[in-house]
Amino acid sequence: MIKENIFEVRKRIASACLKAGRKADTLKVIAVSKNRSIEEIKEAVESGITEFGENRVQEALLKYSAVAARWHMVGHLQTNKAGEAVKIFDLIQSVDSLRLAREIDKEALKINKIQDILLEVKISPEEAKFGLRPQETPGVIREVSAFKNIKIKGLMAIAPIVKNPEEARTYFRILKSLRDQIDSRLILSMGMTDDFEAAIKEGSDMVRIGRAIFEN
Ligand SMILES: *Cc1c(COP(=O)(O)O)cnc(C)c1O
Q: What's the 118 CA to ligand 1 centre distance in angstroms?
């Protein structure tokens, strides 16, 4: 099942990339494996998935020791979990405050690591629980850029639930224009099961897909 799902997702990604006039291999696919078993993750690995997203540190720790892959933190990270997070995650996508960034920097220094991160931005003010406001993002980036054990790779956002996925494009455009305004080298992590095609059309570099890969 997972194998067929991945085949289908890749086909849809290729088609969205074609429509957007871009190469499919420019896009990274992160399989969001929260609440999925190690067996399911191994099945995805067999189908060529190499990067997984988790939203809880404890759960990710177990999977990290069982499966060789690259791990992404995509859920809200509490500052007191930063120490464990830097030990296992290749990319922490959900950095949503200066305070958390400072803690990650401190913990990364302890293990002599430069931690790659994305800053999470709130693109739908009324619905999103976590994330920086777009207007405060440039200032936070300036401060975090001075931290020696953190490297900011880009921006991440979650679009609100909309009736027609095409409507999500408006939200993705907010993140893209913010990025263009700050630094065009920053990558964009946007697009999930319900809206990844819209995100690709708006210039996503990284999609985070859970249900379309792991559900029947
Ligand atoms: C759960 C989750 C995803 C994947 O969502 P699906 O709709 O299952 O594809 C992506 N990003 C974040 C931040 C998530 O929490």
A: 15
